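Protein modeling request. Please complete all fields; requests missing the sequence field cannot be processed.
Requester role: graduate student
Desired output: 3D structure, token encoding
Chains: 1
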Amino acid sequence: MTSKTFMGAGLGVALLAALAGTALADDKLTELSPDGKEACFGRVCDAAHLKAHPNQKVARIFFYYGSYPVSHPNEEPSSGPSGYNGFVATTVRGAKKPEWVGGWCGRGDPQSSEIHCGMECDRTMASLDLDEKGRLIVSGVQRNLYLDAGAEDELGEEEYARQALGTEDDGFRLDPMPAQSCKAEFARIDPIDPALGAPLRERLKPDQPFCYGRDYDAAHLGSHPDQSTETIRVFRGPIELASFAGDPASWPDGADIAVSVTTRHKAAKVTQSYSCEGEADQWRCVASAKTSDFSCDIAAREIYLRRGANGTMMLANPNSSLPIVDLCSKAAEGETASDDKVYRLEPMPQSACTP
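Delivered output (355 residues):
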């Protein structure tokens, strides 16, 4: 078990995935994509160019106009194709992989050929235009493109200069390229691990039970003195299967699961139910009162499930939402203080998850 959680990454992906759906699919920018399909523009600067522009940090830059390009196997029910948007990926000198940002692009002035690409919080990603050779001119790129607003004051001049783009990182001319070139560039950002396999929503069926768990031996517990959990099971059995009233096409939204645990301090097994929904590349599961009566609002007690390597399941408990503590007690407030934050669970026979 490790203390690293994956909730934040999942939420970040969900946020950008939502962003990718904000543009209307019929609001196509035909100058970028005359045939209405995805479009790609890019440039890889050679050594001579970089030597002549010492204040330019960006060595590679790609602009992709199309659907969300940094996608992992998704746990959300399919909602059809997303709208068309703009995405920029840049790799600075010496970096091993790109940074990227996404936004929505449109023409503010119908009389102007310039296209504006904006981001959340009224920020500008870039302005776009095409030259006579069909190259994409990317201008108006701010040095803090990948930083929070106000970062210059917060970081200080020296650190800001290190993290921000260079003073010459603007006015790029990008050549038209096959869409696959941009997809390959964005794939460098967060490569998919083939060992993780299919998403949980494909691996686990709405009408089939499952059981995952782990039993921690004395050696493991001895080396993790701040871990309370001795055994843990995550499952869907007859009760959970019967409770699913949703449309299988919306799976896993509305899926109930149960989590049973024993701890060092309480050998008796405690079981808690949760109701799940797909969120980016994980299941977000909220504690429910189906198995217990609660004197408090447990709607904020959330755990997260994600596919693990080689058929395992990862469970994150970043904010004390497992029944290793009383969910209405002071111990359940705030971030998980013990070493019970992330579990790697193995598939088990259903008999190992009997209530």
